[in-house]
Structure formats: structure tokens, C-alpha cells
Design goal:
Layout: H1 2-7, E1 12-15, H2 22-34, E2 38-41, E3 56-57, E4 61-62, H3 65-88, H4 97-115, H5 117-120
Parallel strand pairs: 1-2
Antiparallel strand pairs: 3-4
Helix pairs in contact: 3-4
């Protein structure tokens, strides 16, 4: 699957943890992240069911710490992409995943410091 996605120009993948056993989600997430992909997690909030916003695996098993980190880095990448698209336009110069994650972290930190200083104190 990795080679097929790469051959089609993809460099990111989204999993729906609620549909996966924790060990399966971890194996796939680790594999794709280690091979340079941006990994993000979605929820089942495209239905009328009123489920919690907390992302969890099948059986409502919470994400382990390493998966939470991968999820955070995926969100940071998306934040950096949105920021650069606004600032430089849709044809901005591509940066490495690590640079995008670093920029995304800075954006989050700026947001928390500016709009909710009490969160940045922790």
C-alpha cells in the first residue's frame, strides 16, 4: 500500500482509530510515519450519531502515548500547511515534514499564548 500511495503522489494518510484494534492502528501508524508519511486520525463525526470527540480505537480504547504524538504531529503539519497557504499562496515552496511539524508546533504555541495564556503556563 505504501508504494501504491507514493506512486500516486500521496505523502499523507488518515486512519479512523474507532474502526481499528489498537495494535493494528499502532503497526500501520508507525510504519507509515517511519516511511515519511504525515499520519492523521479522523473520527466518525460524519454521521448523525452523537459520539465523543475523543479519538479512541475500537472498543473505546484510548490512543497510547506514541499514537497521541503521531496525531499531534499530523495536526501540526496541517496547521503549518494552512498557515503557509494563507501567507504564501497555494504554490508555496515545499518544506520537509520535520520543518512543517516544527512550524506547526510554533503556530500552536503562538495560538495558546495569545488566545489562552492560562494553557501555556502548564
Amino acid at each position: 500500500m505504501l508504494e501504491v500511495l507514493k506512486s500516486r503522489g500521496f505523502n499523507s494518510i488518515e486512519f479512523i482509530p474507532l474502526r481499528n484494534q489498537p495494535d493494528v492502528l499502532k503497526a500501520y501508524s508507525d510504519y507509515f510515519y517511519e516511511h515519511g508519511f504525515i499520519v492523521s486520525y479522523g473520527t466518525e463525526h460524519n454521521t448523525s450519531a452523537l459520539g465523543p470527540l475523543t479519538v479512541s480505537c475500537k472498543g473505546e480504547v484510548p490512543l497510547e502515548n506514541s499514537l497521541m504524538e503521531i496525531s499531534f504531529l499530523g495536526a501540526a503539519y496541517v496547521a503549518a500547511h494552512q498557515y503557509l497557504t494563507i501567507k504564501e499562496g497555494s504554490g508555496y515552496d515545499l518544506r520537509s515534514r520535520e520543518q512543517m511539524e516544527r512550524l506547526g508546533r510554533a503556530i500552536f504555541q503562538y495560538y495558546f499564548n495569545t488566545y489562552n495564556p492560562s494553557l501555556s503556563e502548564n
